[in-house]
Amino acid sequence: MLEVKKTTRWALAAMLAAATITGVSTTATAKEQINVGACVSWPGYSFFEIVRQQNLAPDYDIDISIFEDPLGGHAALATGQLDVYLCTGDYTPVAAARGLDVTNVAVQNLVYGVDKVVIGPGLEPEDLRGQRIAAPQAYIGQLVMGLWLDSVGISPDEVTWVNLNADEAVGPTMSGDLGAAYMYEPWVNQVVDNLDGARIIADTSAPELMETGIFMDVMYMNTNFIAEHREAAIDMLKARFEATAYWNEHTEEVNQAFADYLQWSKADIESIMGTNGKYLEGGLYMLDFNEVARICGVMDGAPPFGIENGAMESIVELTNEWWIKLDLMDEMLADPSDAFDCSLVADLAAQGYRQDFSAR
Question: Which of 59, 273, 282, 305 is the most buried (most CB within 10 A)?
Answer without folding.
Answer: 273
